[in-house]
Amino acid sequence: MSQRLVEAVSQVFGVGREAAEALLEKRVFRIMSYRGIVYLALRRDYGGHREGTVLAVGRREYRLVPGYPPISRVLVLSRAMPRHFVDKVVVEEKMDGYNVRVFMLEGEIYAATRGGYVCPYTTARIRRMYGPNLLDLFEEEGNSLIIVGEVVGMENPYTRFPYPESPGFAFKVFDIARNNSFVSIEERNKLVSRYGLDQVPVLGVVDKHDVAAVRRIVRSLEERGREGIVLKDPDYRVPPLKYTTGHINVEDLRLGMKFFFDEGRSFLFPRLLRQIFLAFEEGWSPSKLEAEARRLGEALLRPAVEAVHSVASNRGLYEEYVLVFQSEEEASEFEEYMSTLGVQIVRGQVTVHNGELRILYKKLKDTAVRIMNILETGISPLD
């Protein structure tokens, strides 16, 4: 066990060396490595640190990247907004991607996912697209900053949603942390603008009682098929809240039900709950309720039945995505990382475009195995 690693754990968690060694042996962390650094991904809340916290250890220094705090979800806007906020509310678009924290260690940029893993693919893409801008920001504003954003677009291995303005891969900043606290929205906007970064769209600033204005914003997003909003205090005096559109609730269910054993009840019920209270707050008429019930029922049943037919006819059941790499070495690095996490992926077609590798991956899903067992035995795995 690296003495440098033990020393870093000892200092961060305020324990002696023996206690630090014991923590490492108890598997409170997952020990990983990436291009010259060793890092610890905190598996669960521990010692005042959130799950997903990263302790990255380089040759000369280490960097603690706190886990990103969960954001409470609003079900009834008219009740939550006036009670939760102080006065003004910043309304930002909630984009459908995956949460990434970008940090610098010993002059290099790294990108950590919500779970606390330094993803080789995400890191490489962000370095190529935003590296010079981010390095300037860290060097001039302080290398202890943490830039938090959403990776969106279709060229990623986690969450793919089609954004016309960001079709491939984009990193949209929504928070900047300094000394473990988020800077104000105004300061974040200035830093993003000054260093030429992208950020999530700011859709308005409203009074906390102006629920009607927020509903108009949500309706506009609904009409465009977007995900939803995040409501923030301009100075972070209270935590943010999030709210999703009815469109995305149903579309999430439609996508999730293709792999219904993988997604499970923890995925399905929260989205049903959102639709229940959306119907209540908007006061759906009987005809509106009937139309939405039909849409919801189709989203739940059709993709699941199609998945069973796909397995039964030996067409397979995969999640597919295309990733872009600069080299074969970069692709192999990503594949090894996914294997380490226990994620099974299979290479498909490989093409070369503008000197870059474009590789189709198929991600194997447990739902296919479960369906096959049911088709063979006729017995349900659930009561």
> How many angstroms separate the termini?
46 Å
- Class inferred from helices and paired strands: alpha+beta
Shape: globular
CATH architecture of one domain: Roll
The rounded Rg comes to 22 Å
The biggest beta sheet is recorded as:
6 strands, mixed
Find the count of extended strands (DSSP E, 2+ residues): 18
Proportion of beta-strand residues = 25-35%
The CATH topology of one domain turns out to be: Nuclear Transport Factor 2, Chain: A
How helix-rich are the residues, as a percent range? 40-55%
Helical region count?
Answer: 12
CATH level-1 class of one domain: Alpha Beta
User: What is the H/E order?
Assistant: HHEEEEEHEEEHEEEHEEHEEHHHHEHEEH
Determine the mean pLDDT: 95
What does this structure look like?
With 383 residues, the protein is α+β, with helices and mostly antiparallel strands. Among the domains are: 67 residues, Roll (Nuclear Transport Factor 2, Chain: A); 66 residues, 2-Layer Sandwich (Dna Ligase, domain 1); 66 residues, Methane Monooxygenase Hydroxylase, Chain G, domain 1 (Up-down Bundle), CATH 1.20.58; 47 residues, Alpha-Beta Plaits. It is built from 12 helices and 18 strands. The strands form 4 sheets. Strands 7, 8, 9, 10, 11 and 12 form a 6-stranded mixed sheet that branches. The longest helix has 27 residues. The model has no long low-confidence stretch (mean pLDDT 95).
